[in-house]
Design brief:
Shape: globular
Radius of gyration: 16 Å
Number of domains: 1
CATH class: Mainly Beta
Helix content: 10-25%
Oligomer: single chain
Largest sheet: 8 strands, antiparallel, barrel
Distance between the termini: 34 Å
Length: 192
């Protein structure tokens, strides 16, 4: 369930990067060193279990003037990291992400909603465990800047959503482990 949220969060963050404040029409590639897809889920109502996916890639096509764009992000599900190796292995198992059968998750979007010139929401789909369902990411922050290292424009932001893991067939531990998983995505993408 956590992995599902992380995948959705990572995809959402990448989508958010597709809507730069100063950008012209262009293609942006996800910066894996500044993009993190994290998830949070209640652990039996006692504490919050957190994790993230360390490997992801993707691109964004963005037309700021037309307020349109397309996002396509892929997450390596085996790269899940909670900081606890046995927990990571359980999340990779058939109980949760079934990495042996479904090695990646994919977020695709072409529905960007704006508030003025900033991306406010991204409507897309998440494919996880062989099933595709809708995901809406809400921008908590969005900005573009000229990166002094890359010498190119970088756009990014923080994005959030809450999904129900059961929508993708992840039902292990219900109801003790809740169905709701919060995805938190920090994303930056570099103009190509």
């Amino acid at each position: 369930m956590k992995t599902t949220l992380i995948a959705a969060a990572t995809l959402a963050s990448f989508l958010a990067l597709a809507a730069p404040a100063k950008a012209q029409t262009g293609t942006y590639s996800i910066d894996p060193t500044h993009t993190f897809v994290s998830f949070e889920v209640s652990h039996f109502g006692t504490s919050t279990a957190r994790g993230r996916f360390d490997k992801k890639e993707g691109s964004i096509q963005f037309d700021r003037a037309g307020k349109t764009g397309k996002i396509d992000i892929t997450i390596d599900m085996a790269s899940i990291s909670t900081g606890v190796t046995p927990f990571d292995k359980h999340l990779q198992s058939a109980d949760f992400f079934n990495v042996a059968a479904h090695s990646s998750a994919r977020f695709v979007a072409d529905g960007l909603a704006f508030d003025g010139d900033k991306v406010a929401r991204i409507n897309g789909t998440l494919t996880l465990l062989g099933k595709t369902g809708p995901v809406v990411l809400t921008a908590q922050r969005f900005n573009c800047y000229d990166n002094p290292i890359f010498k190119r424009q970088v756009c990014g932001g923080d994005f959030e959503t809450t999904i129900k893991r059961s929508q993708w067939g992840m039902t292990y531990g219900l109801p003790g482990i809740p169905d709701d998983v919060k995805l938190v995505i920090q994303a930056e993408a570099i103009k190509q």
